[in-house]
Amino acid sequence: MHGRRALRWFGATALVVSMLMVLTGCSTPASTGGGATTTGTAGGSTGPLKIALLLPETKTARYETQDRPLFEAKVKELAPDAQILYSNANQDSAQQQSQADAALTNGAQVLVLDPVDSAAAASIVTKAKAKNVPVISYDRLILNADVDYYVSFDNEQVGKLQGQALLDKITKDGNLGKTIVMINGAPTDNNAKLFKAGAHSVLDGKVKIGAEYDTPDWSPDKAQTEMDQAITKLGKTGFVAVYCANDGTAGGAIAAMKGAGIDPKTRPVTGQDAELAGIQRILLGEQYMTIYKAIKQEASTAAELAVGLGKGTGVPSSMTLSKVNNGKIDVPSVLLTPVPVTADTIKSTVVADGFWTTQQILNTPALVAAGKLVGLQ
Ligand code: BGC
What we know:
single chain, alpha/beta, 2 domains
């Protein structure tokens, strides 16, 4: 940890940034365009603080239902007049480039960027830096670029926790050494590489990997096609478990198994995100586990840093910063802790933390019955 050094560094940077803002950024009039939507007050001559939030996709539930509203709420709390220039790139890296261009043209003073493509996004950082606009790498690391901050989870640990939970279950089922299927995330996402590496570090040598796929864009429908192919390759009884990198891809793999007449209860499946649909499948026994990541904490931390950078007020003293190398620099980072969730821990994790209420989860008679078995009612 290099918290103290990072704090001193932040103070100096924030001062420079705020001075630069006085000189450059603050007279830009408010406007929208390029697919960006805006909320907040209109700009005056000194203008409200403008923060761009650029998220990568909509097929995974978290971005529109959690990250965006939670980030916006925290910014509003810290800087009620701030304007948020929001865009979602729908899994399209080129579209994200234009959305970032539009945000910069529209006077964004800070970019909070969750890149579709961790490598390609470096050019967005170059453009932002040319305008003295700081960039916070949100959830996914932007590689080989002068990123100011990185806010995420320990992503290799996510993969290790998934792999360990699956391995424990496989061992319990008496299936050690047997064949599994692996459905990883998008090859353009640095997180997907870390999840995959973490999972392999636990599973390799303990099971056979009969089929493995990287899923373009993390699309659940593509994961379903991959699982169809795995079933064709290995046969309906030719695998004992499925590693899926997130709940979206798990949903696709489970749909493929159902379509092939395989009862998903007989094949433990991993996931990530603690999506409502994932939690409900876990309760019903169709999915074995997920990873809960406290998105509220992640979004709030990014909002605090964005407002701190934009206003030059500094980083909260409670924030612990570590360093993550992105190929070019050591990026001051906040890495939060992921938590594994199985049926018996839904109550003590996602419900206890207020991520989902019991009422939201138990919305069918079958879920109410399954909930009772694990103390959820
Ligand atoms: C995120 C996951 C998400 C996945 C697909 C990853 O970078 O960390 O939470 O499920 O992208 O969008």
